[in-house]
Amino acid sequence: MDLSLTIGGPQGGGIDTSSNMINRAFAEAGYNVFGVREYHSNIKGRHSYNHLRVKEERPRSLKYPVDILVALDPDTIFEHLEDIGEGTKIIYDKSFETSDLAQARLIMRDTSKRIKETLDSSSLPNNIKGALELAKKRGGIPMAIPFSEVVTSAISEGPASRYFNTLGSAITLSIAGLEQKFAEAAIKQVFSTKPKAVEENVKVVEAAYSYAKENGFAGKVLKVLPKMKRLLLTGNDGSAMGKLMGGLRFQTYYPITPASDESSIMEEHEHLHYLQAEKSKLKEGGVVVVQTEDEISAVTMAQGAALTGSRSSTATSGPGFSLMAEGISFAGMDEVPVVITLYQRGGPSTGLPTRNGQSDLLFAMNTGHGEFPRMVISSGDVEECVYDAMRALNYAQRYQLPVIHLIDKNLANTTDLVPDIDLKKVKVNQAIRPTQTRLSFKRYSLDTENGISEMGYFGNDVFWMTGDEHDEIGHVTEDPMVRDRQMRKRFKKLETALNEIPLEEMALLLGEKNADVTFVTWGSQKGPILDVIEDLKKEGVKANLLYLKMFEPFPTDFVEEALGKAKLIINVESNMLAQAARIVKLNTGIDIQHNILKYNGRHMTEDEILKAAKEIIGGNGKKLVEVLENGA
Amino acid sequence: MAHNFKSDVAVDWCPGCGDFGILTSITQALSELNLDPKDVIATSGIGCSGKTPHYLNIAGVHTLHGRSIPFATGIKLSNPHLKVIVPGGDGDMLGIGAGHFVAEGRRNSGLTIMIFDNEVYGLTKGQAAPTMALGEKTKSLARANVFTKVNPITLALTAGYSFVARGFSFDMKQLKEIIKTAILHEGSSVIDILQPCPTYNNINTMEWYRQRVYKLEDDKSWDPVVAPGNENQIAEKFQRAYDRGSEWGDKIPTGIFYDNRTIPSFHKRLNEFVPSYYTNPPATQIVTGSDGYTPIDVEATFSEKIIH
């Protein structure tokens, strides 16, 4: 079982509910589902879709062509012509067949023009019939379903279109061979708080399954796998969860896609539940989440909280992160423990506000004026988001500096079924407060071997802080000697961090030690590349992956060793400048020649990385850059 | 022995600067309120006013230009039991930090904001500040000011501040009393402090102000307080405060314009959603379980994410 599907429709038309239902239905039968959400910067109407993959084992990548394309509007068929291949079943409402491309006004003009050119080049009419003809030529199987008729056979009240998403999902599940009871169980979970919606949607599921059976669409019954408890999480969920587990008690944010979901999730879980064993020992607690007036306020308010001893953070995306630059410089200068979760989207400027990107790495490394130590880490899957968010808070507290945690949009909007959250994977260290008031406390004491001075806490200690260079108690100084010593003390912390942090938190060499091809990547390409390595193995090519997680401080020795032995290095990133490769070169001097890059804002898929890698491998190293273009 | 709220750092303001009177008023107010030095924090921005925390013997943060309010808010919301005073310049509060100034009025988190209002950017040699009138030409300006002025009193009122006052740095007795009342005020307060810059502002001098200021409280019927239960007085007292706050020119009022004690502080609002907030705020929470790992029950906290 390895099923790829896309379900598309108008933004606001219940696509997420559909995916949630599909996820939960397969999960009920013991399967694993992995998916990503794609959408426009729009509230209602424009094309959005979820790309999913279902397997017995956990999928970690997506691929094209899809096995099933569910179109809840005509736009979806036009938009996804390129995702159709041999055997792709296209489920759509029969009424769409009268739609013209010209009527699909919410398809972006350039996209529409390109679809027109595609249809014209095959001498097909610019309408759904033409599009379906093209789909057939590509091996697709159109499956027209009278959506309204099927819905009204089950529900007489209200507009039938309200149930099209449930209908489309249920037909999909039926085609996949999933038993009806699992679809119904999923409905009960999705609409758990609304009994009437459960009742109505279950009726639609019944009608969909009957229709599929009567018309011979229903697939061969899928075997049922042992059911396990799992958590259905996105990258946003993972980071929020990790932060709360990691002791975060103060979060600030200004609304921005795709970062604000993290803060909304925290607002929904402000009140924390403690483990049974801790309940009697700990006072009830909660997290304070503050929506600020801008990102400048977000990053400085979080620091204010940190000065009282709270574990504190903010979350933002490119434009907001740009506004935080001065505040991050202050955190570096004044050694404030603060975490900034940077959800990367396509830049520059507003860029592709709802699309994927990894173009903020070099910026994260250099944000803010002047020279100051910071840490820059990155996550590549939902579980990493959880544990890295915890570690980020630990690093911030231990090394007293800003920690920037990079998560790409693709990962933020990935849904994954996570078997277990390991509460014992990352320790959480309590800040030790003094029992007595310390007046004129030497917060920036130079009497330190490792660069770390003892933390002071407002509410306990009297000391000063200033963005100016400062003496040991925090008063302004322009003394040249103290300046030198404070600079060296601050940067010493990075050396200490490099010595103390386990290597696996910085970089990993995944796969065989001796390989013909070594991939280098970071962020959400990890999963697809690991799948590509399996694919290449089947073709007799031994490959491995140098997976980078920490860019500052940088595990230079390890990377040098891993790449020094490599025969062919292929760097894979979702940006145009191969930013991680630049950081590798800066630190190790190793100049990676081959790059697979993608900057059209869409997630990288297994098939396109494989194809590009084979071009590079088979091309005797002549082709240096492969640019990927998949995705509607 | 009583704590000396004045630090031992040498003050480097110009001779005759109005800031000296503000500094003295603050230290006297803190002394008279008998506050524990560890419980009071000063956060400032950049410029001459920004140096104030270093001259106070309490914890202080000399933050970025215009950002003292969000730093202060973070401190106050993380530990609501602390008192946070926010000395800042007119440029800090009403120019580069104006967005924060307005937002804090909406929050009402309990800060004591003091605007050192001298109409110029002193430390960068006297450029026009947001409180300088249109057409005014101080000696440091190459040409007359081309902006109209913002009125700190009426802006604070419309932004929602629940306590709005004005002091004069050469009337330390009145200023000290205003600061004390403001610190004890539960919500956020704004004190506009007329503070002559003897080096760059040769128009709004100490003498200029002395001839014009008068005290609101000299009118025995002046009562700016709206006490809980008297919400029906809000409209009238706000309007009176606004009208007096609009006065400027031959007569400039000082004193407390508005003291509305009926608006819930941000803490009270947070406490509605996190009932443990006030008794166990972020700053004092234990985040480590007895085994050194998280004490949070993830599955109970995020129960809706679980598929059984």
Q: Which class of secondary structure composition applies to the elements of chain B?
A: alpha/beta
Number of domains of chain B: 1
| Multimer state | heterodimer
- Please state the second-level CATH architecture of chain B: 3-Layer(aba) Sandwich
Determine the number of helices of chain A (DSSP H or I, runs of at least 4 residues): 22
Instruction: Write down the CATH topology of the largest domain in chain A.
Output: Pyruvate-ferredoxin Oxidoreductase, domain 3
Radius of gyration of chain B: 21 Å
Number of E-type strands of chain A? 23
Task: Write the element-wise H/E pattern of chain B from the N-terminal end onward.
Answer: HEHEHEHHEEEHEHEHEEHEHHE
* Overall number of structural domains of chain A: 4
Strand content of chain A: 15-25%
β-strand amount of chain B: 15-25%
Radius of gyration of chain A from CA coordinates = 26 Å
Please, what is the CATH homologous superfamily of the largest domain in chain A? Pyruvate-ferredoxin oxidoreductase, PFOR, domain III
Q: Which stretches of chain A of 5+ consecutive residues score pLDDT under 50?
A: none
Please give the alpha-carbon distance between the first and last residues of chain A.
25 Å
What are the segments of chain B in which pLDDT stays under 50 over at least 5 consecutive residues? none
Q: Give the class-level CATH name of the largest domain in chain A.
A: Alpha Beta
Mean pLDDT of chain B: 97
CATH superfamily of chain B: Thiamin diphosphate (ThDP)-binding fold, Pyr/PP domains
